[in-house]
Structures are given as structure tokens and as C-alpha cells.
Amino acid sequence: xxxxxxxxxxxxxxxxxxxxxxxxxxxxxxxxxxxxxxxxxxxxxxxxxxxxxxxxxxxxxxxxxxxxxxxxxxxxxxxxxxxxxxxxxxxxxxxxxxxxxxxxxxxxxxxxxxxxxxxxxxxxxxxxxxxxxxxxxxxxxxxxxxxxxxxxxxxxxxxxxxxxxxxxxxxxxxxxxxxxxxxxxxxxxxxxxxxxxxxxxxxxxxxxxxxxxxxxxxxxxxxxxxxxxxxxxxxxxxxxxxxxxxxxxxxxxxxxxxxxxxxxxxxxxxxxxxxxxxxxxxxxxxxxxxxxxxxxxxxxxxxxxxxxxxxxxxxxxxxxxxxxxxxxxxxxxxxxxxxxxxxxxxxxxxxxxxxxxxxxxxxxxxxxxxxxxxxxxxxxxxxxxxxxxxxxxxxxxxxxxxxxxxxxxxxxxxxxxxxxxxxxxxxxxxxxxxxxxxxx
Length: 440
Ligand SMILES: Cc1cc2nc3c(=O)[nH]c(=O)nc-3n(C[C@H](O)[C@H](O)[C@H](O)COP(=O)(O)OP(=O)(O)OC[C@H]3O[C@@H](n4cnc5c(N)ncnc54)[C@H](O)[C@@H]3O)c2cc1C
Prior knowledge:
The protein is an alpha/beta fold. The chain contains 15 helices and 20 strands. It folds into three domains: 5-43 and 217-295 and 393-438, FAD/NAD(P)-binding domain (3-Layer(bba) Sandwich); 44-67 and 74-85 and 296-390, Polyamine Oxidase, Chain A, domain 2, CATH 3.90.660.20; 103-205, no CATH class. Helix 1 (13-24) packs parallel to helix 10 (222-231), helix 1 (13-24) runs parallel beside helix 15 (423-438) and helix 2 (68-76) crosses helix 15 (423-438). The mean pLDDT is 96.
């Protein structure tokens, strides 16, 4: 056991990853979580619907095969990937509002990357030959430029400059951009989008696999990680919102409603929204507080619709075109929540003006048009995460994990400079902070 005692503020993916890595290396760790539950923006919630208690995720999440740190960490914590996820080779099935397949793309599983993608594009349905050739040329161009651009710009401009047609954008690039960056094309950072494409489409062909949760998110992420941390001697304090951190001669004091506790190291692993407040008594870091205060945020709405018995979609995941609904998941196929469909509406848009009931009715109507066999839902539940992710815009300034105060670090999705707000970005930042502490 090291003499150091590390305080980790926040029990989302970043804080849990930092804590798990540090306890593994023999550090004494205390994790403070403001709420009664771990997981942060990737958690399960118990909701009452029609008098029944139901466990739902705060948002339907998609993991990628390229989430190498996340998958390695979960494995360490005892998560069996096959039990936790349905792994599917990258595929996009876009259903039109007229109930017809509009676009079908499937990467060719027996080919190595990037041929799996290029041949998938050759054989995709719903695009003209010219559009398919332009998509393949674009991917080849990205490979030869190593997915780098000189000056970052809104993704829509980059796509248009590279001859991506309206349909290609609508069927392929926009759904991928919304899923990865949760930011409208007109605002999204090309550089960050290309980083995601690079890690997804180069290296192993399995990097582009979709991993769809088969269990609820807390079962997959926070519960196994919490067990691992506690088993290795770490302490987790629930309902302990950290008010501020102050510097002392030997380290830091961390203040909660229960008073102050001393630590040698601190990792601030909250979402960016909470950072400025925690830094209020550390004037040397006020620049980070000011930086994060300028961030804009994007919402994600998840609309759960419970249908009568024997409701099943032909596949686990669909995209919808010309609709408010973007991605549709059959939770019966995925996690045995029979007859339950989850619909994602990401990023800002007109839907934010609707009440939750209006949005659910709109989505149910769209589903009924796209899949005419669906009946009327029995109930719905809308979970609105208003600040689901930071807006991933060009040239967004991100704080580094290391700060100008020795032994104080930032972790969190917003600190991983290569990625948008994702689980993998959060996990990588947490593991990296732990490595920085351990390297001193
Ligand atoms: C609806 C939705 C859908 C998403 N879909 C995907 C997806 O498909 N794929 C993907 O990769 N990512 C997705 N994301 C993004 C992903 O969930 C986040 O990027 C990731 O969970 C962020 O983790 P984090 O640890 O950085 O922050 P958070 O999860 O925000 O964790 C911060 C933690 O700090 C705690 N905290 C805050 N203030 C204090 C304080 N003062 N004291 C103590 N504790 C405090 C909070 O309670 C929270 O538990 C989605 C997010 C949402 C909301």
C-alpha cells in the first residue's frame, strides 16, 4: 500500500476508471459521488410505469469495438463481454417513413479492415453508383491523409467539399456524426469526427463492430467496477457532493457537507458543468473553470415505448430517415425487455419544443409508419438528458489532465482531446490520470 491517499470526485466512467486503476496499483482511494448512484451519464434508472417498477437506462448507449480501454477495464472487473453485449459488424439499416428500406449498409465481415468497409460501400443499397464511388474515394482519401485535416471546420462543409451528396450525408454521415458526436453536422468538429472514423475503420476489422448492451448499464459498468474497487480496498462515499477543494501543506482538503478530509492527490472527475464550482478556492486553476463555463451542451432524448405482446422488430437496431426519431432499438431482442422499443433523438432540434408526451406520440406515429405492423404503444417514458454531452465543435479548448497544481488532475470525457463525449473518452482520461499519479 502506498502512503498516498487519492480523492476521486465523481463516480461516472472517468472517476470509476481512475479509481479502479489506482486500487489495482495499491493506492488508497476514496471516491466521492454526489448522488446515491454511480455511473453518471451512463447509468440505469428505476422508473414507475403503469404501477410497475422498471429498470431503464438513462439513455440507450452504443459501444464500439474500438473502445479498447473500456473493454479491457470491464474485463478486469469481471464483465463477460458475451453476456454484456450483442456484438454486430457495423451495419446501418435506414427505414423510410413510408415503411420501406431506404439504405442498407453492412461491413463485409470476412474481409480485413478497411476492405470490409470499402466492399460494404460497393454493395450497399439505396445509393447511386456515382454516390457509392464518391463515398469510396472519400474513404480512400481519408486513409491516405491518415484522417488528418489542416484546419478544423464544421463537418458539413468538409463533406460537401469532398463531393458527398445530400443522400450520402443523410443516410451515412449524419447518422454516424449524431451517434458519435451528438452535435449537428453544421456545428460538428471535422477533426474529432475523423479521429473516431480513424479508430473505427483502421486496425482490426472488429474496431467497427457495434456493441449493444444486453444488460442494463449499471450492471455492465458501475456495479462491477464498484465491486472491483471495494474488493481492492477502495472506499466509495455516496450522497457526498464535494463543495470545494483547498490546498494544504501536504496536499489538499476535500470538503463535503460532513466536513473536510485530507488527501495527498485529487482527481476531479465530474462533468464539465460542475468543475468551476469545485475550483472556487483554487485561484490558480480559475482558467479551467472559465474555459469549461464557455462550453455549450447538446441533449439526448430516449423515448421508451412499451408495445403489446409479440411485438418484435426484424432487427435489433434501425435508423429512420426523414423523421425526428434517429435510432430505434428493440430491447426485447437486446436485453429481454420484451415488446419494449427505445428510440434515440440526439442533438438539438425542433423536438425540444415539444412536451414529453407530444414527443412520444410523434415518435410512435413515425414508428408506425416505418413498421406498419406495430400497434399502439401501451405506455411511454421519455428520459431527457438536457446536457448529455458537450457540443463537439471545431477548435474546442479542452483542459489537460495534468494541472498547474502538482497532484491535482482532471478526468472526464471532456478532457480526452481526441474524442467527443463518449464512454471511451471518459475511461481513457481516468486511466491516464491514474497512470500520471503512479508515474511520480
Ligand atoms: C443519454 C445519453 C446517451 C449517450 N450515449 C452514448 C453512447 O451511445 N456511446 C458513448 O460512448 N457515450 C454515450 N454518451 C456519453 C457518455 O455517457 C459520457 O460521455 C460518459 O458517461 C461521461 O462520463 P464522465 O465520467 O466523464 O462524466 P459523468 O458521467 O457526468 O460523471 C460525473 C460524475 O460526477 C458526479 N458529480 C458531479 N459533481 C460532483 C461533486 N461536486 N461531488 C461529487 N460527485 C460529483 C456526478 O453525479 C456523476 O456521477 C451518452 C450520454 C447520454 C447522457
